[in-house]
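Q: Here's a chain of 98 amino acids. Please give me its 3D structure as tokens.
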Amino acid sequence: MTTPSSFTGEQLTTALNVLGVDFIMGEQLEKGSLYKKPVSLIAALAKSPEARLRLSLIPLFLEHPEFSDYVPSVSKELGLITRITLQCYYTAAVLLPK
């Protein structure tokens, strides 16, 4: 797995947009392959220094509920604060009315 810190905000935004999560406006790059790697994408979003990217976990889980399958394994790889962030945003997505 590529280290999440190696992804730029633009790469993360592009991956979200390719997945149909138009939550963040940003420069559109070439597709890349990050959108095909849910574990890397979720971890990178949770670790992002940008609040807007961390917050985009909620619409990502709403648009792609199948990504919730990866939350337990991603959580095990994260530090305490980042794990709490992921768990809170995942919980928010689960509790939001559909």
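Q: Can you summarize the key feature?
A: The chain has one domain: 4-95.
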